[in-house]
Write a structure and sequence with these properties.
alpha/beta, Rossmann fold, N-(1-d-carboxylethyl)-l-norvaline Dehydrogenase, domain 2, three-stranded mixed beta sheet, binds D-mannonic acid
């Protein structure tokens, strides 16, 4: 029997379920990129707000590509469970916050309609780094075929094409502006969304660019919860203990954090009553998270995979990788920026080490290794450039970077990365003796993010050679 409205009363008494009648709540939010992370994070905070009596904040999910989440959730009336995994007993909670999931390629008009609806006040995004089509220099990559197609109005398929069409409809009607809240792991995610959308709209319709500047806001936010991809085995165990099948189930750690810049043009749910933090400047939290958590994650991923390990918990327990991870977090990442008053980076590092060690949450290194070209600039390269300028050594990040360079050579399988072809070409023409310079030298592929000094290039080169053997 499947989880849905009519089977809710069969749940074990201790499973938390919505205190509101989901079908009676209107949508106030459209979310682009309704993957497992969103379902275990923002949807949970929004569900809590509705449990506490707030109304009409359900989420219309949008999948930009795949239909799998819609196929999982629609037969379940949008309901799904979030279960925590740790050494403590699991907590299972049914979430009613997602009203439906639209699959953009199947029905682009419905997505535009949802964005244009007067009831929609906030659009949130978790479309991963590559969904922003950033150029190496940080703005929008106008040469990306999908962006060019959306500008030629033969789409839309990208977030920019959809947002432009939705905002245009709002401008023509009386729906007013929107808060566009990026929840992706990027530095200054709000500002970069604002900048890229502005660049897109300037080409699409400059009067809409102007209207958007005056009517919309783009708060930055830092999101944090480790959410491994759900496996069939997870679903089976859940249905055995729970008595109901849940195709949309997500499994996560107990920890969850959401720091949001307080810059909304209209109403919003009282997320701060349910654990979120509304602040005037997200930057120190975002930087700490990207450089300490995500930076360490990526290091464990590439170095761990090279050693034949599979999980984050195995990599952090490894006698070489554990100390390297500690050095990366505590010495290299934590000393590369100024914390906010009261932000305790040493305590943060302790918490991260414990979270990475969670034996109950199998988090695959291969999941983290994906899309490295989009991740390493904010996770490692900005840290490297700070320390290079100050003349400080960064042995842990350089070792991790060397293992990423070797990973994208693709010897152990296909590399899942939007820059895969460019990286393969760099490897073909430079070979192992020149690859460090081809990527991080003065004319390197990553020159907009970091140009390595002679000394740093030499060290990187040395790590590449050592790891090759
Ligand atoms: C991970 C993140 O896959 C990755 O690259 O580093 O998804 C990480 O688990 C989250 O950012 C944690 O909040």
């Amino acid at each position: 029997m499947k989880l849905n409205h009519s089977t809710l009363d069969r749940l074990p008494a201790d499973a938390r379920r919505p205190d509101y009648i989901p079908s009676q709540q209107a949508c106030g939010i459209v979310h682009l990129g309704v993957g497992a992370f969103h379902r275990a994070h923002q949807a949970v905070y929004t569900d809590a707000a509705m449990n506490a009596g707030e109304r009409n904040w359900r989420i219309m999910g949008v999948s930009l590509r795949s239909r799998s989440v819609r196929d999982q959730l629609s037969p379940q009336d949008g309901l799904y469970t979030v279960s925590t995994k740790s050494e403590a007993p699991p907590e299972i909670r049914v979430i009613g916050a997602i009203a439906d999931v639209l699959v953009a390629p199947e029905n682009p008009a419905a997505v535009i309609e949802a964005l244009a609806s007067t009831a929609t006040r906030i659009v949130t995004l978790t479309v991963t780094e590559k969904g922003y089509h950033q150029s190496a220099g940080g703005g929008l990559d106008m040469s990306a075929p999908a962006i060019a197609a959306d500008l030629a109005r033969s789409g839309p398929t990208t977030i920019f094409g959809f947002l432009a069409a939705g905002l245009d409809r709002r401008r023509q009607g009386s729906a007013g502006g929107l808060t566009l809240l990026s929840c992706d792991n990027m530095a200054d995610n709000g500002k970069s969304l604002a900048r890229s959308l502005d660049e897109f709209l300037e080409q699409y319709d400059p009067t809409l660019a102007d209207w958007t500047r005056h009517n919309c806001s783009f708060p930055s936010s830092m999101v944090d919860r480790i959410v491994p991809a759900t496996t069939d085995a997870d679903r089976r165990t859940l249905s055995e203990t729970f008595g109901l099948e849940d195709a949309g189930a997500v499994f996560t750690e107990p920890f969850s954090q959401w720091v949001i810049e307080d810059d909304f043009v209209g109403p919003r749910p009282g997320w701060e009553q349910h654990g979120a933090e509304l602040v005037s400047d997200v930057a120190p939290y975002e930087t700490a998270k990207l450089r300490m958590l995500n930076g360490t994650h990526s290091a464990l991923a590439y170095l761990g995979l090279a050693k034949g390990l599979n999980l984050v918990s195995e990599a952090i327990a490894d006698p070489q990788l554990g100390p390297l991870a500690q050095c990366l977090m505590r010495e290299e990442a934590a000393s590369s920026f100024s914390p906010a008053p009261g932000q305790d980076l040493s305590h943060y590092a302790d918490e991260l080490a414990a979270r990475f060690s969670n034996p109950a949450l199998p988090h695959r290194l291969a999941q983290i290794a994906m899309d490295g070209s989009q991740k390493i600039p904010q996770r490692w390269l900005s840290t490297l450039s700070v320390h290079q300028e100050a003349g400080r050594e960064t042995p842990a990040i350089l070792q991790a970077l060397a293992s990423w360079v070797l990973y994208v050579r693709g010897r152990s399988g296909a590399v899942d990365d939007p820059m895969r072809d460019q990286l393969a070409r760099a490897w073909q023409s430079a070979g192992h003796a020149g690859i460090a310079g081809a990527l991080f030298g003065a004319n390197g592929l990553f020159r907009e993010h970091w140009i390595a000094s002679e000394a740093m290039l030499e060290q990187l080169d040395k790590h590449i050679r050592t790891q090759l053997t």
